[in-house]
Amino acid sequence: SQKIEQNSEALNIQEGKTATLTCNYTNYSPAYLQWYRQDPGRGPVFLLLIRENEKEKRKERLKVTFDTTLKQSLFHITASQPADSATYLCARSFYNQGGKLIFGQGTELSVKP
Amino acid sequence: DAGVIQSPRHEVTEMGQEVTLRCKPISGHDYLFWYRQTMMRGLELLIYFNNNVPIDDSGMPEDRFSAKMPNASFSTLKIQPSEPRDSAVYFCASSLGGRPGPGYTFGSGTRLTVV
Description:
Helix content of chain B: under 10%
Shape of chain A: globular
Radius of gyration of chain A: 14 Å
Structural class of chain B: mainly beta
Radius of gyration of chain B: 13 Å
Oligomer: heterodimer
Distance between the termini of chain A: 41 Å
Mean pLDDT of chain A: 90
Mean pLDDT of chain B: 93
Protein backbone atom coordinates (compact mmCIF):
# COMPACT_ATOMS: atom_id res chain seq x y z
CA SER A 1 0.00 0.00 0.00
CA GLN A 2 1.03 3.60 -0.45
CA LYS A 3 2.36 5.13 2.75
CA ILE A 4 3.32 8.58 3.87
CA GLU A 5 5.70 8.71 6.81
CA GLN A 6 6.74 11.67 8.89
CA ASN A 7 9.06 11.81 11.84
CA SER A 8 6.84 11.23 14.84
CA GLU A 9 9.32 12.79 17.24
CA ALA A 10 8.73 16.44 18.02
CA LEU A 11 11.23 18.91 16.61
CA ASN A 12 12.50 21.57 19.00
CA ILE A 13 14.51 24.47 17.63
CA GLN A 14 15.64 27.93 18.64
CA GLU A 15 13.99 31.04 17.26
CA GLY A 16 15.72 32.32 14.15
CA LYS A 17 16.98 28.91 13.06
CA THR A 18 15.73 26.95 10.06
CA ALA A 19 13.31 24.13 10.80
CA THR A 20 13.43 21.15 8.44
CA LEU A 21 10.69 18.52 8.46
CA THR A 22 10.80 15.28 6.49
CA CYS A 23 8.12 13.40 4.61
CA ASN A 24 8.90 9.98 3.10
CA TYR A 25 6.66 7.92 0.86
CA THR A 26 6.71 4.35 -0.34
CA ASN A 27 6.15 2.77 -3.73
CA TYR A 28 5.05 4.99 -6.57
CA SER A 29 5.66 8.72 -6.63
CA PRO A 30 2.58 10.67 -5.68
CA ALA A 31 1.41 13.19 -8.26
CA TYR A 32 1.33 15.93 -5.64
CA LEU A 33 2.59 16.44 -2.15
CA GLN A 34 0.90 19.00 0.05
CA TRP A 35 1.92 20.48 3.37
CA TYR A 36 -0.55 21.61 6.01
CA ARG A 37 -0.26 23.28 9.38
CA GLN A 38 -2.49 22.24 12.27
CA ASP A 39 -2.87 24.11 15.54
CA PRO A 40 -4.41 22.46 18.65
CA GLY A 41 -8.20 22.29 18.39
CA ARG A 42 -8.24 23.47 14.79
CA GLY A 43 -8.44 21.88 11.36
CA PRO A 44 -5.40 21.63 9.08
CA VAL A 45 -4.59 24.70 7.03
CA PHE A 46 -3.09 24.37 3.55
CA LEU A 47 0.41 25.83 3.13
CA LEU A 48 2.10 24.60 -0.03
CA LEU A 49 1.73 22.09 -2.84
CA ILE A 50 4.51 20.63 -4.99
CA ARG A 51 4.07 18.51 -8.10
CA GLU A 52 6.23 15.50 -8.90
CA ASN A 53 7.89 17.30 -11.81
CA GLU A 54 8.89 20.21 -9.57
CA LYS A 55 12.05 20.22 -7.50
CA GLU A 56 11.31 23.14 -5.24
CA LYS A 57 8.52 25.53 -4.26
CA ARG A 58 8.74 28.65 -2.12
CA LYS A 59 6.30 30.88 -0.29
CA GLU A 60 7.67 33.62 1.92
CA ARG A 61 9.70 31.84 4.66
CA LEU A 62 8.54 28.41 3.54
CA LYS A 63 10.29 26.10 1.10
CA VAL A 64 9.33 22.61 -0.03
CA THR A 65 11.46 20.20 -2.05
CA PHE A 66 10.48 16.98 -3.78
CA ASP A 67 13.09 14.29 -4.49
CA THR A 68 11.58 11.37 -6.41
CA THR A 69 14.86 9.43 -6.23
CA LEU A 70 14.93 9.52 -2.44
CA LYS A 71 11.11 9.34 -2.29
CA GLN A 72 11.19 12.29 0.03
CA SER A 73 9.89 15.81 0.52
CA LEU A 74 11.53 18.32 2.83
CA PHE A 75 9.70 21.27 4.35
CA HIS A 76 11.78 24.20 5.54
CA ILE A 77 10.81 27.20 7.64
CA THR A 78 13.56 29.81 7.63
CA ALA A 79 14.01 32.41 10.37
CA SER A 80 11.60 30.43 12.53
CA GLN A 81 9.44 32.19 15.10
CA PRO A 82 7.56 30.93 18.18
CA ALA A 83 4.34 31.53 16.20
CA ASP A 84 5.47 28.78 13.81
CA SER A 85 5.00 26.22 16.59
CA ALA A 86 2.36 23.75 15.40
CA THR A 87 1.99 20.29 13.90
CA TYR A 88 2.89 20.05 10.23
CA LEU A 89 1.24 17.43 8.05
CA CYS A 90 2.38 16.05 4.73
CA ALA A 91 -0.22 14.63 2.34
CA ARG A 92 -0.10 12.90 -1.02
CA SER A 93 -2.47 12.46 -3.91
CA PHE A 94 -2.29 10.60 -7.21
CA TYR A 95 -3.45 11.43 -10.71
CA ASN A 96 -5.72 8.40 -10.93
CA GLN A 97 -7.42 8.85 -7.57
CA GLY A 98 -9.30 12.06 -8.18
CA GLY A 99 -9.39 14.19 -5.09
CA LYS A 100 -8.24 11.55 -2.64
CA LEU A 101 -5.70 12.97 -0.19
CA ILE A 102 -3.80 10.76 2.27
CA PHE A 103 -1.99 12.29 5.25
CA GLY A 104 1.08 11.40 7.23
CA GLN A 105 0.98 11.38 11.02
CA GLY A 106 2.43 14.87 11.29
CA THR A 107 5.47 16.30 13.05
CA GLU A 108 5.11 18.66 15.97
CA LEU A 109 7.39 21.69 15.78
CA SER A 110 8.24 23.79 18.80
CA VAL A 111 10.18 27.03 18.33
CA LYS A 112 11.67 28.39 21.53
CA PRO A 113 12.35 32.11 21.99
CA ASP B 1 -17.03 33.18 2.76
CA ALA B 2 -17.31 31.69 6.27
CA GLY B 3 -15.28 28.65 5.31
CA VAL B 4 -16.28 25.05 5.95
CA ILE B 5 -18.78 24.94 8.79
CA GLN B 6 -19.19 21.91 11.00
CA SER B 7 -21.65 21.26 13.78
CA PRO B 8 -21.68 20.51 16.58
CA ARG B 9 -18.18 21.44 17.79
CA HIS B 10 -18.41 18.95 20.62
CA GLU B 11 -20.62 15.92 21.08
CA VAL B 12 -20.78 13.61 24.07
CA THR B 13 -23.03 10.62 23.75
CA GLU B 14 -23.61 7.27 25.35
CA MET B 15 -22.61 4.04 23.71
CA GLY B 16 -25.35 2.72 21.47
CA GLN B 17 -26.81 6.11 20.62
CA GLU B 18 -27.03 7.54 17.13
CA VAL B 19 -24.73 10.45 16.32
CA THR B 20 -25.08 12.81 13.37
CA LEU B 21 -22.32 15.19 12.36
CA ARG B 22 -23.02 18.00 9.92
CA CYS B 23 -21.00 19.89 7.38
CA LYS B 24 -21.56 22.87 5.12
CA PRO B 25 -18.81 23.14 2.48
CA ILE B 26 -17.58 26.32 0.86
CA SER B 27 -20.03 27.51 -1.75
CA GLY B 28 -18.96 26.42 -5.22
CA HIS B 29 -16.66 23.65 -4.08
CA ASP B 30 -17.48 20.38 -5.81
CA TYR B 31 -15.52 17.97 -3.60
CA LEU B 32 -16.33 17.17 0.01
CA PHE B 33 -14.28 14.95 2.32
CA TRP B 34 -14.86 13.43 5.74
CA TYR B 35 -11.78 12.67 7.86
CA ARG B 36 -11.31 11.25 11.33
CA GLN B 37 -8.33 12.12 13.53
CA THR B 38 -7.02 10.20 16.52
CA MET B 39 -3.66 10.18 18.27
CA MET B 40 -3.05 6.57 17.29
CA ARG B 41 -4.07 6.66 13.64
CA GLY B 42 -3.66 10.29 12.67
CA LEU B 43 -5.89 11.80 10.00
CA GLU B 44 -7.81 9.11 8.12
CA LEU B 45 -9.96 9.65 5.05
CA LEU B 46 -13.39 8.11 5.57
CA ILE B 47 -15.30 9.05 2.42
CA TYR B 48 -15.40 11.71 -0.25
CA PHE B 49 -17.99 13.09 -2.62
CA ASN B 50 -17.80 14.75 -6.01
CA ASN B 51 -20.84 16.77 -7.09
CA ASN B 52 -22.81 15.17 -4.23
CA VAL B 53 -22.01 11.61 -5.39
CA PRO B 54 -19.94 9.33 -3.13
CA ILE B 55 -16.75 8.43 -4.97
CA ASP B 56 -14.71 6.43 -2.48
CA ASP B 57 -16.00 5.11 0.84
CA SER B 58 -13.26 2.55 1.39
CA GLY B 59 -12.17 4.33 4.56
CA MET B 60 -15.53 3.98 6.30
CA PRO B 61 -14.76 1.68 9.25
CA GLU B 62 -17.89 -0.45 9.16
CA ASP B 63 -21.57 -0.49 8.44
CA ARG B 64 -22.29 1.58 11.52
CA PHE B 65 -20.97 4.58 9.60
CA SER B 66 -22.90 6.23 6.79
CA ALA B 67 -22.56 9.53 4.96
CA LYS B 68 -24.89 11.48 2.73
CA MET B 69 -24.75 14.60 0.64
CA PRO B 70 -28.31 15.49 -0.35
CA ASN B 71 -27.24 18.75 -2.00
CA ALA B 72 -24.17 20.82 -2.76
CA SER B 73 -24.32 22.75 0.50
CA PHE B 74 -24.84 20.04 3.10
CA SER B 75 -23.45 16.68 4.17
CA THR B 76 -23.93 14.42 7.16
CA LEU B 77 -21.90 11.66 8.74
CA LYS B 78 -23.95 9.31 10.88
CA ILE B 79 -22.80 6.67 13.36
CA GLN B 80 -25.40 4.20 14.52
CA PRO B 81 -24.91 2.66 17.02
CA SER B 82 -21.94 4.58 18.42
CA GLU B 83 -19.14 2.86 20.34
CA PRO B 84 -16.38 4.24 22.60
CA ARG B 85 -13.76 3.48 19.92
CA ASP B 86 -15.50 5.99 17.66
CA SER B 87 -14.28 8.78 19.93
CA ALA B 88 -12.20 11.09 17.76
CA VAL B 89 -12.20 14.46 16.04
CA TYR B 90 -14.12 14.36 12.77
CA PHE B 91 -13.20 16.87 10.10
CA CYS B 92 -15.00 17.88 6.98
CA ALA B 93 -13.06 19.47 4.10
CA SER B 94 -13.98 20.81 0.69
CA SER B 95 -12.12 21.71 -2.48
CA LEU B 96 -12.68 23.03 -5.95
CA GLY B 97 -11.84 20.46 -8.58
CA GLY B 98 -10.21 17.10 -8.04
CA ARG B 99 -6.73 18.42 -8.71
CA PRO B 100 -5.51 19.92 -5.42
CA GLY B 101 -4.21 23.16 -6.81
CA PRO B 102 -5.44 25.48 -4.10
CA GLY B 103 -5.38 22.87 -1.36
CA TYR B 104 -8.28 21.67 0.68
CA THR B 105 -10.15 23.80 3.22
CA PHE B 106 -10.96 22.10 6.49
CA GLY B 107 -13.61 22.88 9.03
CA SER B 108 -12.86 23.23 12.73
CA GLY B 109 -13.94 19.69 13.41
CA THR B 110 -16.38 17.92 15.72
CA ARG B 111 -14.89 16.35 18.82
CA LEU B 112 -16.92 13.21 19.51
CA THR B 113 -16.76 11.43 22.84
CA VAL B 114 -18.67 8.18 23.25
CA VAL B 115 -18.94 7.04 26.87
